[in-house]
Design goal:
With about 325 residues, the chain is mostly helical. About 60% of the residues lie in helices and about 0% in strands. The longest helix is centred in the middle third of the chain and has 22 residues.
């Protein structure tokens, strides 16, 4: 299933992660912020999956200790998003069909989603938030195809790029409301605003927490650099990787209005990147989301907003 053509060995993910995070410590964040925790089954699976001698039967038993993860994995592997020719009737079959690494990435994103959804948010509507996350994930995968990059990493990185926002905005609501109230008056994106106010941003915090959990370095880099937007295409290591696909997906609209000029940037990108067909990608994302069977309603499809942005720039 996985179209993993990206040469992972060509990028020293560990060094890039260490260098990027060396000046940040989660201790600088307000103590009132209760950071989420991954489910025990996800942590155990991630650790065991790192052992090359681990068998799919062993790994399946770990997942089966969590009924919620079991259901979500089977629903995902049998969905149109994955597009496998054979259906899985058990966790062992699901891992065998999907692969250990893609299964690990899926469990990490699903486990984190469950942890975040368990928290109430005053500022972010959870249903709309996860709808946008899925849009960004599907968009990121389509861009990764063009880059010949790792599709599974592109999906996982896009799903997790903003995972801490519901938690952080809930504890610091007044400050984030100031950003939203004055959004039309400023050109800075959300990460720039956070950096100027707090001395850190949700990308740094999310990547640092992921590093504490010992998640894959390449996934941490996706979270850490997701707010770079088009600048990522000039980065020597990242420009042909899934990190770039995630960064481009971050330009899509969301509740927090992180990038007010995101769609116009993507429209302009297709004028210099001929294979980047924005309307076609948006149509594909909308169709995939409608047919996914993952239970996430797409109340704000990308295609109309894409056409609106293109008309405004015509």
């Amino acid at each position: 299933m996985t179209d993993c053509r990206e040469k992972m060995s060509d990028i020293d993910w560990k060094t890039l992660r260490i260098e990027s995070l060396k000046d940040f410590n989660l201790a600088v964040m307000p103590p009132t912020i209760r950071l989420p925790a991954l489910p025990i089954a996800v942590t155990q699976f991630t650790q065991r999956a790192n052992d090359p001698n681990a068998t799919t039967k062993e790994l399946a038993k770990i997942i089966e200790t969590d009924a919620g993860l079991t259901v979500e994995l089977l629903r995902y592997v049998n969905s149109s998003v994955v597009g496998l020719r054979h259906r899985a009737g058990s966790v062992h079959q699901a891992i065998s069909l999907l692969g250990i690494r893609p299964t690990k990435l899926f469990l990490i994103t699903t486990g984190m989603q469950s942890a975040i959804q368990a928290r109430k948010s005053k500022l972010i509507h959870q249903g709309g938030f996860w709808n946008t996350c899925l849009q960004k994930a599907l968009f990121s995968r389509e861009v990764a195809r063009l880059l010949h990059a790792d599709l599974d990493l592109a999906i996982a990185g896009a799903l997790l790029q903003d995972y801490l926002l519901p938690v952080i905005t809930n504890e610091m609501t007044d400050t984030y409301c100031q950003f939203l109230d004055r959004r039309n008056e400023q050109s800075n994106n959300l990460c720039d605003f956070e950096q100027s106010r707090f001395g850190w941003n949700h990308a740094l915090a999310g990547a640092s927490l992921a590093a504490r959990w010992q998640l894959p370095d390449e996934l941490i880099c996706c979270i850490l650099h997701h707010h770079w937007g088009l600048r990522i295409l000039a980065h020597p290591e990242f420009k042909r990787s899934s990190v770039a696909a995630v960064a481009l997906s971050s330009l899509l609209p969301d509740q927090m209005k992180q990038e007010v000029d995101g769609f116009p940037m993507l429209v302009k990108l297709q004028t210099i990147w001929k294979s980047f067909d924005l309307p076609a990608i948006c149509e594909s994302v909308d169709q995939l989301q409608a047919e996914s069977g993952l239970g996430v309603n797409n109340d704000f499809p990308l295609t109309p907003r894409c056409h609106q942005a293109m008309a405004a720039l015509a």
